[in-house]
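Entry type: protein chain
Record version: 2
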Amino acid sequence: MSNNIKRRNFLRNSLLAAGGIVLAPNFISCSDSTDKLSSLIPKDLTNKNFNQGVASFDPTNSQVIIWTRYNTDKSSVKIVWQLAKDTDFKDIVRQGEVTTDTTRDYTLAIEIKDLDENLKLFYRFVNIDDKTSSPIGETLTFGNNTSEVKLAVASCSNYAAGYFNVYEAIKNSDADAVVHLGDYIYEYGEGTYGTFRNPEPAGEIISLDDYRTRYRQYRSEDQLKELHQKKPFICVWDDHEVTNDAYKDGAENHQADEGDYQIRKQNALQVYSEYLPNTTNLSDSSIIYRTLKLGSLVDLIMLDTRVVGRDKQLDYATYTSAAGFDTASFQADWLNPSRTILGQQQKDWLKNEMSNASSQWQIIGQQVLMGKMYIPAELLSAFGSSSFATVLGELVQIKARLLQNDPTLTDAEKARVTNVIPYNLDAWDGYFAEREEILSTFKDKKVIVLAGDTHNAWQTDLITATGEKVGIEVATSSVSSPGFESFVGVEGAAQLGTALKLLIDDLKFSNLSDRGYMKLTVNAGAVKTDWNYVDTITEKTFTTTTKNTLTI
């Protein structure tokens, strides 16, 4: 056993003893474990027992993680891994042998360091004793002379809601890697949030075994399994990897009869690390935020805006009573400078990363909308009521007249569209002061913020409280989870999108009804974002269409 692996196991056991979050450690490779393994591999290999396929993660200029899971009833099993420049595995770049067992659900992740730049790589896993082999995976390293990087951006894949046609569309695209912004799984039980397919286990997932069963189902799904085999992923978690509307100390979808929330969170994050490994942080295994260098073009800064540091979300209902809305109390809490979505440690880290960022572009991958989505308070109050359409139409007419400097507008009419409040307190809108602090670090940088979570597509200018534009946010639709069309219908969602673009000052584009992904094409001079959509998630035959493009 190498010193790196010994150190990692010591850290894991220490954290377990201390009651902290325990994540499955990666196996680290800085050089060949042995040069004799190739000669030991049988010629007559059978492709079986690797039911969840293969995957790779966190590619950079010099390293990548390769992953698999072996299906066995043994307590432990030895697996040989190989990384090569060819599919016949004649030109081996690195290889080794590791043991996986029940403590990590028979998964294994090899973090392969000190690789050359600009490599197209192939990898596989072999059980010599069983004469079995995994499928052959494809991955890569970037390089300082990489002239273009193509990233597919995805979020919110609900197995119960429909087929993963979006994943298949990404597989068929020319994207180099997939940036997944979270809600990779959903925790709900059967018939709770989608009835198209049945999740496993049937109930809501809470225990360690529950989460493992759900991940095994997702990773056995052909469309997702094939995408993982073809393209490396760069992932962060959102709330549903634990449970809905999670924060550091609890969640909306966690009740007292479901046990201790911290135990549930530990179960969820341990299994996440078993199935979606990321570049290791030896000092704190619960840290998922990190920066990946993609050539000299991109500092890809991945954040955790959900689990580690987030204060509990505000709720308008807390400030509403028979006497009306308590504006003073709400504003005091909302504007509280100590209120955090990142936590102090991550915030300090992010500010340092932004200060030292040296690539052409700083692309920030994170979960929830950062742009200001302030809507008329009257409209938020009317949402879901029979008067919503009428109120929306009136507000759109008033805002249009205001933008045209209509002198006949009354003060009362102006107030209806200028009295605005955040529509989603679960997003950065609920953490006003910290957002301003972070936006200030974007100045003099070329910043693009990525977001998922909402199931809808958005483009928003990032504007400080003083009116300075410091970046652009592009948000992806979902893989399968429903958007606004589930509330107002497809036609209603289109009308709502048009209205919101007028009513929300910083919003430039939205799509509130289609399932899809974004593709970012990055070169030294520009970033092109294509919003791509599939026309169905209830049939396996589908077409993919680009409906909006932005070049920055």
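Comment: Confidence is low (pLDDT under 50) at residues 1-21.
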